[in-house]
Design goal:
Elements (H helix, E strand, L loop, with lengths): L10 H9 L2 H38 L21 H10 L3 H10 L10 H8 L8 H14 L5 H9 L7 H11 L1
Helix pairs in contact: 3-4, 4-6, 5-6, 6-8, 7-8
């Protein structure tokens, strides 16, 4: 219960107060500059592996600045699925692998990308960070087909996949 002495303020009023505080403005500007610099460093790290992918996507009419532009896109991109599947097997940067796997987590990738994603997931665990493994397992909940059920069941039973067992079990349940 609120006490009578507490006063609530709107978000706009709070932002107005913050923007009138020179120390907060300096710190906020510093945070924003650091964020922009980090984003630029990530773009530069990804550029060697991502540029050929973006060129190939553009060749089929899909013009994006980053593979991440496809993640949660409000439009379908079936022509990209085979290209993304091929690049998932080629690229090494974890952030790029994660972006490609997320972009492949769409219904139109079912039957096209499932085996590639399963193969990538079966790489030795030390070759993929947990976040990439989780994204690959999650993709199977959307793109796996019945031909993959036995392989996924084997992964569920394998302790090397304990960290992503829940996602794999979900994929298996959707198949059965």
């Amino acid at each position: 219960m609120k006490s009578k002495s507490s006063k609530s303020i709107s978000a706009a009023e709070l932002m107005s107060r913050l923007h009138s505080d020179p120390e907060w403005v300096r710190e906020n500007d510093k945070r924003e500059a650091e964020h922009k610099a980090a984003a630029e460093r990530r773009r530069e790290e990804l550029r060697p592996e991502q540029t050929p992918l973006l060129v190939e996507l553009a060749s089929v009419g899909i013009k994006v600045d980053s593979v991440w532009d496809l993640v949660n896109a409000k439009w379908s991109y079936p022509a990209a699925i085979p290209i993304l599947s091929a690049y998932l097997q080629r690229v090494h940067h974890p952030l790029l692998r994660e972006g490609i796997a997320r972009a492949l987590t769409v219904p139109e990738a079912r039957g096209v990308a499932g085996q590639v994603i399963l193969s990538e997931l079966q790489r030795p665990p030390d070759q993929s960070p947990h976040s990439v493994r989780w994204v690959l397992a999650n993709a199977l909940t959307v793109v796996a087909d019945e031909t993959m059920a036995d392989a996924i069941e084997g992964l569920v039973a394998n302790d090397d996949y304990a960290d992503i067992r829940e996602r794999l079990a979900t994929a298996l349940r959707k198949l059965r």
